[in-house]
Please model this.
Amino acid sequence: MIKLHTCRSILYVSLLRQSLIFPEFKTVNCLMSILSAPRKFASYFKLVNLLQPKSRNNPVKSSQTVRNLKISKMSKSALVIIAQGAEEMETVITVDMLRRAGVSVTMAGLDGNSPVLCSRQVTLVPDKSLADALAEKPQYDAVILPGGLEGSDRLSKSDVVGTLLKEHEGSGKIIAAICAAPTAFVAHGVGKGKKITSYPTTKEKITSDYTYIEGEKVVIDGNFVTSRGPGTAYWFGLSLIELLTDKEKAAQVEKGMIITGY
Model:
């Protein structure tokens, strides 16, 4: 014999799930009648149980399992900071390649969300201001600084940039810069002791606190990534993709863009 309270609870859930199979159970009156007389509808209860999927290959996931699955599928995040005078190729190539790899990229304007005039008179529109980007998400998996002499100088003089670089360095996040932007590392005192590279004419601005590397498209030392200029931006992007995702994803993006193998 079916216990009354058990039958009421299970029937209520079962009826809701099977409303498409038994449309007449949609009305409140009919539902209340069933719940008040469970013995009468015991045969229906057995039928509902037979209709429920019981595949061992599709077990019902706990809420914790679902949360873990959601977390594992979340994409990595990257913050690209652009200032007036930024190098447009380095900015766009990096942002584009990371997005092709499924990385969630926020292109943030140092001085607000207004269009940014870059070094070759190309105008880029930020996704949002740097202030808003940090208010919404204080930490990113990677912080990326495009080059350009004027843009890099503005990044070097920004206290906000200095603070976020130090915070991300302390958290072990990826910190990347290309062209003249590694000079911002020197200005803000981050990455000391690291191997870095930059645009050749900015070499003299890299102090003895760093080991300067020449002859390499990209230099990776721990969580610091640096590159030389517009022509090396593709390898800069691929290196960041590999660090943020994996080698397979980097190879997939490289193949799709025909960077090599043409």
